[in-house]
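[Meeting: bench + compute handoff]

Bench side (C.D.) handed over the final construct sequence. Compute side (W.E.) agreed to return the predicted structure before the next meeting so the bench team could plan truncations. Sequence as handed over:
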Amino acid sequence: SSFQSQVASRSSSFGDMESMASMTPMTAAWMPKEMMSEDSEVLMAVSRLAARVLFEPTPKTSAGVAAMVEVLKPKLHQLFGSQSSSALSAFLLIWDEQFQLAAMAGVVVEKLPGFQDEVPRVCYLVIDPRLHGQGFGSMLVRQCEDWAKARGHRAIWLFVFRHKERLCQWYSKMGYQTVTHLTITVPVSGQGEMEGTVQMLGREVTLKRKPL
């Protein structure tokens, strides 16, 4: 596919070891920023997986997914693909044997609400629902932790939706401790007659922190 050839041609310029890692199915690979350019298939694949899975209630139709992609794609490009982005960030992908995007996670260094210092935060952690329970989530989180630690950070942070109790417990088992609860604005897919629209709504999240 053109997605596969795009990955192969871009990753080959980063040396043989990196090229091999980038091309190995079910292995996590960091994406060079130019792979996440505005018109890249990688950015579209990332945006579609996030649109389908990340925010509840999830869109039920292709129009609903497309509307969510329109909202998420510029944000993802700004954080992880823009060469001019001031944010220190990195994006990690796992794809399957068919070169369908299987799982992903980002890490971005930014100021969190109510905090002075810029700190690393895990974000856009998404696993394709057909691949849950195979350890991809913990693999991605650990690699984000290693990325932050290698850059001298002593802790890493993340938001988790408060209503996702099992996910909160999973992060606790991974060593993440609750710091506070707050409300953030997120895109929410319209339901029923509103399918195909996206509203920006407040959602309660738990801010968690793990010492590194």
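W.E. noted at the follow-up: The two ends are 39 Å apart (CA to CA). C.D. will use this when planning the next construct.
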